[in-house]
Amino acid sequence: MSMILGVPVAVLSGQLLIGIINGAFYALLSLGLAVIFGLLKIINFAHGAMYMLGAMATVIMFDMLGLNYWVALFVAPVLVGVFGMLIEYFLLRRISGQDHIYSLLLTFGAALMIQGVLTNIYGVSGLRYAMPDAFKGGMNLGFMFLPYYRAWVIAIALVVCFGTWFMIEKTKLGAYLRAGTEDAQLMQGFGINVPLLVSLTYGFGVMLAAFAGVLAAPIYSVTPVMGSHILIVVFAVVVIGGMGSIAGAIVTGILMGIIEGLTKTFYPPASSAVIFLVMVVVLMFRPTGLFGKEA
Description:
Blueprint (H helix, E strand, L loop, with lengths): L2 E2 L2 E2 H32 L6 H19 L3 H22 L9 H23 L15 E3 L4 E3 H23 L1 H11 L1 H6 L4 H23 L9 H16 L4 H21 L7 H12 L10
Antiparallel strand pairs: 1-2, 3-4
Helix pairs in contact: 1-5, 1-8, 1-9, 1-10, 2-3, 2-4, 2-8, 2-9, 3-8, 5-6, 9-10, 9-11
């Protein structure tokens, strides 16, 4: 049996695959946080709840309405995105321009309320979502077995992440988004509906979290508390990449997933803390994060 540093290649490649999959989720969730903070300066502590709502909506639509995975993949993020826009309109808009701590506390309270309501309805034991028929099975690569659904998650996450980066950084729409949040009065003078632009931006960031939730439903147990478990890790990833950095969120999310997976192989006790250790080291030498810019 082939070995690398005393570890069988099959074991190492398996953990590396898990790390890349986790990194794909970290990248999607971190990207949503980076969009919301980078463009709107809102610390969205409800992001984990939106991830959970995406997964819960997928299960509920399947159980109650009989809708398949492909419908849920598009419908669930849109529904959660609209819900996020309502939160922005009725709650966050009221504290616009205030210190960041107000948005943090408000979204944290909203997340607790959402989690509490769904816990009372569904409990915390977890719901299962069957693997879509199109992705059952996998391929033998010789050194490892790659399930089709895992490959799909990695591929679609990369496509969505790159597409979001391209839209924000390279298109006229992205220029409007950046300009509308930096100088709202100027953009309104050109006839741009800035409040609507802000709502759509927040809704889009929330949609990315919900999209990650839909992808997670066939892999992980779907519970009302699943968002709170991953939120702190995702915030650490965003800090490492640089608050508000789109490219930083994507690259750091995937990188941290890989580092976490390799740590589980070579020193499992440190796997749950390695991301936070990296965060401490990065902040010591580069307080703005790897891709962050000085204020």
